[in-house]
């Protein structure tokens, strides 16, 4: 499920919840992190960000996707999911 970010919520989020410059590309959850990856590709191709910025955004978003996720079925079971 994609959570919508209201202006108030977005403004209240720490910089660490964004992967791009100027608090762009939120990565506060898995949906937004996935969207940041594809959005970075589109933005670079459109000339809105540099290839270096694209790589940085993707790296931060992928790290967010991997953070805290179970790596095995046993870890999944421990979390009670």
Task: Record the SSE blueprint.
Elements: H1 7-12, E1 18-20, E2 24-26, H2 30-45, H3 51-66, H4 73-79
Antiparallel strand pairs: 1-2
Helix pairs in contact: 2-3
Account of the 3D structure:
This protein is mostly helical. It has a domain at 26-79. The chain is 56% helix and 7% strand. The protein is built from 4 helices and 2 strands; from the N terminus they run αββααα. Strands 1-2 form a two-stranded antiparallel sheet. Strand 1 (18-20) and strand 2 form a beta hairpin. Helix 2 (30-45) runs antiparallel to helix 3 (51-66). The radius of gyration is 14 Å and the shape is globular. It starts with 6 loop residues before the first helix and ends with a helix.
Order of helices and strands: HEEHHH
Query: How would you state the average pLDDT, rounded?
Result: 86
Tally of separate helices: 4
Q: Give the strand order, joined by hyphens, for the main sheet.
A: 1-2
Largest sheet: 2 strands, antiparallel
How would you describe the shape?
Answer: globular
- Give the strand tally: 2
Q: Please, what is the oligomeric state?
A: single chain
| Gyration radius, rounded | 14 Å
Proportion of residues in β-strands: 5-15%
Poorly predicted parts? none
Helical fraction: 55-70%
Q: What structural class is derived from the secondary structure elements?
A: mainly alpha
Distance between the termini: 16 Å
């Amino acid at each position: 499920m994609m959570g919508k970010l209201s202006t108030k919520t977005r403004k209240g989020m720490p910089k660490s919840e964004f992967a791009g410059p100027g608090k762009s590309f939120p990565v506060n959850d898995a949906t937004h992190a996935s969207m940041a990856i594809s959005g970075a590709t589109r933005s670079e191709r459109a000339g809105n960000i540099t290839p270096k910025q694209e790589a940085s955004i993707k790296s931060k978003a992928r790290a967010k996707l991997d953070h805290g996720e179970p790596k095995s079925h046993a870890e999944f079971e421990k979390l009670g999911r």
